[in-house]
Write a structure and sequence with these properties.
Helices cover 39% and strands 23% of the residues. With 211 residues, the chain is an alpha+beta fold. It folds into two domains: 41 residues; 163 residues, Nuclear Transport Factor 2, Chain: A.
Length: 211
């Protein structure tokens, strides 16, 4: 009788220990899962980091005339607008959809981009020439970078925030030289908007000292 009671007691104790082991295993797995989720957040880049990398890629692509890379960043629905100076004119500034951009880039079609500050001369050029001689009039791969902040400004009205109130922009600034009292500075801005989880460019804006 005593042996039977002893055996039953032993089985009961072993059963309790197994249950405790199972509970501790579940608890440990839960903690491990939570830890993995926290660590995975470190791999997610912030919007500012993503756009800084995109800005660098765009500058390198334009410098090497790799326009296909640029075309891939054009907003699928809104296209891209080009402004010669800080003031964005929706009615006069040239605007291209991604399809039109790829169509006219290799062509010899001459576009009217706007009036040169000071002389008032009408600036006409092909799309490729505009990129080479106006958008990249300086080597902006060696510029000062800023995010959603204007480093410099001239007399030209800067209405970027009014035209694109919910957009983000990057600025690439090159300071002026002593020879011209710093007045020959140049800036290139890219304006971005998010679409289906990705950032696309909607505007390319040049800026410089204007009279």
């Amino acid at each position: 009788m005593r042996k039977t009671f002893f055996v039953l007691s032993l089985l009961f104790i072993l059963s309790c220990e197994k249950k405790q082991d199972k509970k501790s295993t579940v608890s440990t797995d839960h903690l491990k899962s939570s830890h993995e989720k926290i660590d995975s957040k470190k791999d997610i880049l912030s919007k500012e980091e993503v756009l800084k990398k995109t800005n660098e890629e765009l500058l390198k692509a334009l410098k090497t005339e790799n326009y296909n890379t640029f075309a891939n960043y054009i907003h699928p629905q809104k296209g891209v607008r080009f402004s010669m100076y800080a003031f964005v004119d929706k009615n006069e500034d040239k605007h291209f959809s991604k399809e039109d951009f790829k169509k006219f880039l290799p062509s010899k079609t001459i576009f009217t981009w706007g009036s040169r500050d000071g002389s008032g001369e009408i600036y006409k050029a092909t799309l490729k020439t505009y990129f080479r001689d106006w958008v990249l009039k300086k080597d902006f791969t060696k510029s000062e970078y800023s995010f959603n902040q204007f480093v410099a400004g001239g007399n030209s009205l800067n209405n970027l925030r009014e035209i694109y109130p919910n957009s983000d922009f990057t600025e690439n600034y090159i300071s002026g030289t002593e020879k011209y009292g710093g007045m020959d500075w140049n800036t290139l801005r890219f304006v971005f908007e998010e679409f289906e989880g990705k950032f696309y460019i909607v505007a390319v804006i040049n800026d410089e000292w204007t009279i």
